[in-house]
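Bug #77: duplicate submission created two jobs. Keeping one. Sequence:
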Amino acid sequence: MEAYSFRSLSIKRFPKVQRTENSEEKHWARYQFPLTCKEHSVITAINFSPTEPHDYAVTSGSRVNIYSCSTNLVKRSVTRFHGSAYSAQFRRDGQLLVAGEEQGTIKVFNIGSRDILRQCVEHKKAVHHTCFSLDGLKLMSCSDDTTVRCWDLATATSVVTMRGHTDYVRSGGISQSDGSLWFTGSYDHLVKLWDIRTGQCMQSMSHGAPLECLLVHPAGGICFSAGNNVVKVWDILAGGRLLASFSNHQKTITSLCFDGMHRRLLSAGLDRQVKVYAIEDYHVKCSISYPAAILAMGISPTDSHLVIGMTNKLLSIKCMKKKADESDGELGTPEIKRARVGSYKYFMRGMHYKPTEGHPRVENRRQKNLKPYEEYLKKFRYHDALNSVIQSSVRNRGVLVYSLLQELSRRGGLRTAVSGRTEQQLLPLLQYLCKFILNPKYSTFLCDVALMLLDIYGHAVQKGSASEAIFRTLKVKVELELRLQRKALELLGAIDMLLAASTINVG
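Kept job's structure:
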């Protein structure tokens, strides 16, 4: 006959509420842990090249760094600025780069040689937004001198000057369906639609707050404006009618952009959050947190990179994980991955190998290392076992004490374990009951333990002692819980009556 082997204490496991993850969250969870790069100053703009390999320009302080999309390292650095640079943007062919300057100058660079091709110097104050027109032959600039200008790239002269804003103009956009329609957003709370052929304002919409960023949908009929912590959607074809207004940020929104397929709108703000909205109903589909306030955001046309610029001068770069069917291997020839020598997988080789009938089987019995309370349980020293657990400081102390009390009850030694205690030994047990007796997972069994303690020590509790104070606290907690339960049952009865009445009326 085999010798009796002690069975370790089984810790009670309660069911966990599983959080269902939708397909949208799974998609954004495919971005890997972010790479971080330290810039020289705060990052004010991020722009991806429309052409492959989709390198991205990061505007920070008095320089523009161009990062490689494949290595995420600085490929080129443009530093020919006399002050802070703003809003570096690529042309549609990816060959030229335009950026505004603190002194009001607009500079156009050749990406390959980093030479200054053109300089536009008619603005009186800082230029915070610049971009190329759809044909690539004109420039758009929005300045703190409250003007919006259209520049001829060949001659670097201002062709059209649009006046109508009364405060700083910090954002703008061009309609993708009609390149002659330009949108601007200003600190005077207004979104204006301009026709550069006449230089006149066609529409004007009031956002109600200073505008930080503006985004035009590629279809050309919808414009998004962000000011304060509110995003508003304007129907341009209906004369600037407000379609929707939503606010899911706690602080000012600083950046807006679309994903590669233009099916999702992304917003970033000073509350360190990036929100992803569905274009159909503008409901939040996903939320991503960052360690610092966000000033700039960009996403690649293929959704392979999500780049964030923060106020702590850090650039966060998240890369999308490739799916198994997107691997570089040949079709039909799966790549055999070998475990690296010294890795965890290398030492776990053959762990799941199933032997056949002819293989000999060697039994390997390992002696279990018992915990102190298990040693006491093995020796039937229930009093000491409860003391060792109730005085411990382990992380799961609550469920551990509960499991031990249930094991003692199963063995018929619970009364032995809790009796014969001095006041100092009784206090930790009473404090545990006070803390966990209202927990629905423990309350049924702990109420029986509390009644047992009252039966044993009720006559011996001295007036004014610490144990009497805890017993009174325990009584107040139980009475409060009973009162709440009665009110909940009354409310449940009222709801059942209303449901029954509505069912009769419908019938």
